[in-house]
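Summary for the lay section of the report: proteins are chains of building blocks that fold into shapes. Here we show the chain for glutathione-specific gamma-glutamylcyclotransferase and then a coded description of the shape we predicted for it.
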Amino acid sequence: MTMWVFGYGSLLWNPGFEVAERAAARLPGYARSFCMRSIHHRGTVAEPGLVLALDEQEGAACDGLALRVAAGHEAATLAYLRERELVSSAYLEKVLQVRLTDGRDVEAVTYVIDAVHEQYCGGLPLEEQAQIIAHAVGGRGPNTEYLFNTARHLAELGIPDAELQWLSTRVEFINR
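The coded shape description reads as follows.
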């Protein structure tokens, strides 16, 4: 069976699994935002960072990439993604329908925020997000690296995200 994964943050630039096909895709009903406190990868329990998550919102849509997993790698990919994405149970694993730009609808493994989890922090003002991201460091490195890589890859893919662009500019200024 064909397996797709929806990427909207670090999966855009660091999928960590063998990708057979990449296609621009839209996920309705969710918005990409820095609404999850990171206590492992981009921050610590004492000084959490922020990572992107899909926050369910009526009328919203998130543009990203649908990544088709190479045939024969489905089980290993799912195990890898669960180890990576479900480290603190703040994400929920869902299989959701995404629409590819060529008109195909596919079911994709997608990681969305659990809005009742203690790491959920939706609605933080952008300036507060910038201050957190500018200073946080976790097991996978500085929070700034996560922001800058994601914003750059979205721009390269032609996917506009005004909030990430603003945050990138602001965090660069803070860290001068």
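Put simply, here is one thing we learned. The beta strands are 4-7, 19-38, 49-69, 91-100, 105-113, 137-138, 141-142.
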